[in-house]
Amino acid sequence: MFIYNLKLSSKGIFKTIFAIMITLGIILCIFVTWKIILKSGTQKSTEIYQIETKNYTNVLKAVHDDIDTYIGQKIGFSGYVYRVYDLAENQFVLARDMVVSSDFKTLVVGFLCSSDNAKNFKDGTWVNITGEITKGYYHGDIPIIKIETIEKTEMPRDNMVYPPDEFYIPTSSLLYNNL
Q: Rounded distance, CA 63 to CA 15, Å?
């Protein structure tokens, strides 16, 4: 039979609890650091995120506001070919008309796209594309969709888009988790 003499004091209890808390804090810091390193080392999803009319401007805003987070993300969506005078020959804006007032005044919004066969599509032609978000420069840093596939399509019934939601806040680095 063993008999232990255990004397408890408030100092001893405090030291024990303090040591346990420090140990848990260190373990938590190591875990969080490991998760951050693991996440930064992973590649973006290879799945294609389809942008729809209802989330078009939310996605557009999120990607423009934080380009670096979305580089490498594959997306697919439709719009019409829109060009301005200072775009390169292989570039166009895949555009939609965004309603900005109650009397249906609109602005052109969209992603700048690049494709080797961009010149094969006239302005106003509706196309469906899939591509990868890259970072480029056009009057400042801007996301550019490097088109992988492009095909002519018909104008959809819901061709107009609306301004981004006021309460929209991106919550993840990937569009799949974001929208």
A: 50
